[in-house]
DNA sequence: CGAGCGGCTTGATGCAGGTCAAGGACACCG
DNA sequence: CGGTGTCCTTGACCTGCATCAAGCCGCTCG
């Protein structure tokens, strides 16, 4: 259950919507607030957005949308994780990116591109907020500042894609994997040994990095024999972060 | 009236609005009108945008901006062509895309990403319109509809990138090249032989397709021996478009 | 004019990573 | 319990493309 400081919020919500759904609306508002896109919105505007939203629960493996479908809006992650991918002609999935809270995705479909350019399925039990398209467009017209956030969010995705694009061509896995491992480490720059759990299965991770699971497995094995990391199932410990950094730097 | 820092520039702008340079402004307006982003703008708004713009001429090989530089705005192609690329760690360039009129690019830098995420150089003598960032942001606030166009433009770039991403991993050159050739053909669906000139050197084309010029050369040679196309220098004739389509379909 | 250079082609060779196949660890289920 | 599933690992092999190298053409420029 999501806790919310009520009071002023509740009052506004009551007046905004008819009250029956207000607790759900408040919960949605709270989640939206986490997203950087809505972080700086006034409570009133946030409520207005929330009113045009609905919640969707997904089981593991359930698909949220398919490539080519007409879009109903865009999405803000509330819990779990969602994989965005396309199918190669021979039917295998090419993962484009994986989203988790508090990221948002499919903003593209707000504009001229009306249909989803890729597929989305939940990697685990997840909840997403569906932001209604036409409501949101109306709001943008009244609240131009919002569109700058929108642009910001999209440009981050775009930059990320550009990065992936060049990574996949220009750097080999050991570099990309080393990079990824270092970015997972919570402590960041700290030189001390850091440990964490893989947030996804190795198969999915392989997909994210653009290789097969076999190749990922081999590369992890190599890192292990070189004494850079220790791997036990989903548990990873970084032993020699300078060594990893040397790989990642390339 | 919006203030500009440089005194000389301020003077120019003043005289622009008062008529001396108005022909330049009119020319800019006309070019902007070509771009789909500005196509539906009212004449007054268009003039307002044009006023915040300047023109920049580039020689072949001249760089427009470099990765990491702070951005001054975004660009609309007026003539020529500009290549966007990043440098791999070992110093070779990885082309991300090539723009020609009436496309616009570097819109990303309008939002949170303040510095260019890649490099841009002219592939031939070119002219671009520089759209001043802060002025344009002001305009968005007054004219929210504009931001939807902005979002549209960016989402097209984004979709294009997603396509490239999956192409590079999932399809081999012959498929990508076949695809590209068919998209060049002006007549489109017509089954009759179509001919055209390569808009860029084969080396650059290879870069766009994500391979080396040697590989492109070999692939073209194969298509030639298979009787799909005829190539003479920059002149290409599509002989067997169904055959090409069969390749591209994969 | 010849030298040099950039673009293009073609051949020989190497390698990263994909594919196929087999097997182990673990979970769930009738 | 054994059966069937997913996930992961490891080995043997294959292949698309990069790389290196050599040579041809057409150009610009000293």
Give the fraction of residues assigned to helices of chain A.
Answer: 40-55%
The total of helices of chain A stands at 9
What percent of residues of chain A are in strands?
15-25%
Write the H/E string of chain A, N to C.
HHHEEEEEEEEHHHEHHEEH
Major beta sheet summary of chain A? 4 strands, antiparallel
* SSE-based structural type of chain A: alpha+beta
* Greatest interface (CB-CB under 8 A), with counts per chain: A-B, 47 and 48 residues
| Total number of beta strands of chain A | 11
Spatial strand arrangement across the major sheet of chain A: 1-8-3-6
- Rg estimate of chain A, integer Å: 20 Å
Q: Span between N and C termini of chain A?
A: 45 Å
Question: In one word, what is the shape of chain A?
Answer: elongated
Low-confidence blocks of residues of chain A: 1-19
Mean pLDDT of chain A: 83
């Amino acid at each position: 259950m999501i806790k919310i400081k009520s009071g002023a919020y509740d009052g506004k919500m009551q007046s905004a919507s008819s009250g029956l759904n207000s607790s759900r609306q408040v919960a949605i508002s709270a989640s939206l607030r986490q997203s950087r896109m809505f972080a700086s919105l006034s409570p009133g505007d946030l409520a207005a957005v929330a009113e045009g939203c609905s919640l969707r629960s997904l089981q593991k493996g359930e698909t949220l949308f398919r490539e080519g479908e007409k879009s109903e809006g865009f999405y803000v992650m509330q819990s779990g994780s969602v994989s965005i991918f396309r199918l190669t002609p021979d039917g295998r999935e090419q993962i484009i990116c994986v989203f988790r809270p508090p990221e948002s995705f499919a903003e593209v479909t707000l504009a001229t591109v009306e249909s989803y350019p890729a597929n989305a399925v939940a990697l685990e039990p997840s909840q997403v907020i569906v932001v209604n398209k036409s409501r949101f467009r109306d709001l943008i017209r009244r609240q131009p500042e919002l569109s700058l956030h929108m642009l910001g969010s999209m440009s981050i995705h775009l930059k990320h894609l550009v990065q992936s694009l060049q990574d996949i061509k220009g750097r080999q896995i050991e570099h990309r994997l080393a990079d990824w491992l270092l970015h997972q480490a919570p402590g960041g720059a700290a030189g001390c040994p850091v440990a964490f759990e893989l947030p996804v299965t190795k198969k999915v991770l392989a997909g994210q990095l653009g290789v097969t699971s076999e190749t990922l497995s081999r590369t992890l094995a190599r890192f292990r024999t070189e004494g850079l990391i220790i791997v036990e199932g989903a548990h990873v410990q970084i032993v020699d972060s300078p060594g990893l950094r040397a790989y990642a730097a390339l």
